[in-house]
Amino acid sequence: MNKFLTVFALAASVLLVGCQQEESSQPANQDKKTEQTASQQKKSKWGYELADEVWQDTKSYGSPRMAFIWTDPPHATEKTRFGDEIWSTKLDHTDLKRRVPYEAIGGIIRTQKTSPDGRYTVYAVSINSRYEKRLYDIKTKTMKILSHGGVIPSFEWSSDSKSIYYNEAGDFKHYHIPTAKLNILSDKYGERGNAFLVIDNDTKIVFFRSNKMHVRDLKTGNLLFEREYDRISERSVIRTATGDKIHFKGAFGHKIVDTTKPNYPEINSFSTDAIFPKAFDPFDASHLWVAALGIYDIKTNKLIDIDLTNYHKLKDVGLNTSQTTLYNF
């Protein structure tokens, strides 16, 4: 089995609490000894090293990563009543790192999505009955509020990690990071909300609304294709990293559609108790990531058994793998 197919069995190699270092008799090593002791005390407090993700660090960015929401990690709950943070690991459940600290959140995270290159995370925070849409840059460690409204949005990134598309309060919006411009695109697309995906090298956008799949030209807004289904669950809308295949759940099973053909044919339909797959595996499109349960193989129509020991250990200290996204392919 590909080593990266181990889903949500998080932090197998995260360092456990170490033994205290023996004191050195040489004054020249005193600063090093003090630093080591402080680090060990930090770990002994809640069991895991607190390390922020460094963008494009060669040790962390040598392979794809997975970002997820951690609800009330132990170090945060002592300082604020809102402890939600966004963390990440490699897909082989190593290199646990913090992406967005609670200082940049201050509320309950409802959804999040990391940019393909890993530099940014866009997320929605629930504050006083409204949802603030925020952008966090892990390179500069800065946060920007994009807008706020009364709905939990869907987010989608452009392939170059420079643009964000999202829905809000009946409008469909586009934020361009280099120019810091936010535009309303509802009139162009004739769409207001619901789930959507950007495909075909950022040239097309697929909306899922009123049990219909609408494909539009991203630049002009022209309708290119439309098909009605018995049902489309917006929570189940995902695509491959390249956007050549999309998945959604209908009334009678899961659908996989080929987006490279003009008529967008269904190339697979299957049923499973795995209700809402989180992502296509980046190395094999026949495998779907299914929350903490593992990998679902659509060829065999079965879950692939994985070791969840380390995942359950992290669950015991409050980890929540909701709104998982993959990046750095």
Characterization of this structure:
By secondary structure, the protein is mainly beta. The chain contains four helices and 24 strands. The chain has helices spanning 30-46, 74-77, 186-189, 309-316; strands at 65-70, 85-90, 97-100, 108-114, 120-127, 130-137, 142-149, 155-157, 163-168, 171-176, 181-184, 195-199, 204-209, 212-217, 223-228, 233-239, 245-250, 253-258, 266-270, 279-281, 284-290, 294-297, 302-304, 325-327. The strands form six sheets. A four-stranded antiparallel beta sheet has the order 3-2-1-24, with no helix packed on it. Strand 17 (245-250) and strand 18 form a beta hairpin. The longest helix has 17 residues, at 30-46. The protein is globular. The protein starts with 29 loop residues before the first helix and ends with a strand. Mean pLDDT is 80; it is low at 1-42.
**Secondary structure category:** mainly beta
Alpha carbon gyration radius: 21 Å
Q: Could you spell the SSE succession in H and E letters?
A: HEHEEEEEEEEEEHEEEEEEEEEEEEHE
Residue windows where pLDDT falls under 50 for at least 5 positions: 1-42
Counted beta strands? 24
Q: Please report the number of helical segments.
A: 4
The biggest beta sheet, please? 4 strands, antiparallel
Strand content: 35-45%
- The termini sit apart by 19 Å
What value does the average pLDDT take?
A: 80
> Outline, from the CA principal axes?
globular
Fraction of residues in H or I helices: 10-25%
Strand order of the largest sheet: 3-2-1-24
